[in-house]
Amino acid sequence: MIRVLLADDQALMRAGFRALLDAEDDLEVVGEAADGAEAVELSRRLLPDVVLMDVQMPGLDGIEATRRIAADPDLVAVRVLILTNYGLDSYVFSALRAGASGFLLKDADPADLLQAVAVVARGDALLAPAVTRTLISEFIADPAPADPAAGRDVLTAREQEIVELVARGLSNGEIAERMVISPFTAKTHINRAMMKLYCRDRAQLVVWAYESGLITPRSR
């Protein structure tokens, strides 16, 4: 059973999501929050598997709420899926930097929402290679200053190469083909890099690659 917390300031929107999710045998809505502060509080109290987080809410917004959830060691298993009306806008990369595991448009098909919740709940990132490429071209043109000491020395040369390919938007299969290894081996290297860098998921690995200066938009 996947336990979901809904965070949206629109009661009608929450009701729609609840009806969709509760209709599934393996999903359960365990709570609803009308703002970011309540989302953080309920996350700590209810320990959901996934928080469906709106971006723009009164008081504490979804970005800051996501940051607080991701930074709380007691909530390490809680994943945040950002919901937005605005598509690939400036909020998205801010959300990924804050610790979100992915994002979804509010007008997505119901089947896509259900799949997104399942993907995030099992610890994967909802960040398809095509989305990664768009994020690179649209939102990392003005990155934070590179931090050369951000942990690159803990990665082997092979791991650095693979992380760079992830940040360029390649899938596991494409990385395997590029490096002449199996997809399983590619996934193993990626998982090992995430463990070494304390990245929650693939999305965070992409963010780290840019924050650390391992890759820059100009080197795409």
From TrEMBL:
Pfam families tied to this protein: GerE (PF00196), Response_reg (PF00072)
SMART domains: HTH_LUXR, REC
GO molecular function terms noted in the UniProt entry: DNA binding
Ranges of residues in domain HTH luxR-type: 148-213
In-chain residues carrying the UniProt-annotated modification 4-aspartylphosphate: D54
Keywords assigned: DNA-binding, Phosphoprotein, Transcription, Transcription regulation
Any one biological process term the GO annotation gives: phosphorelay signal transduction system
Stretches assigned to the Response regulatory domain: 3-121
Protein name listed in UniProt: DNA-binding NarL/FixJ family response regulator
Organism: Actinoplanes digitatis
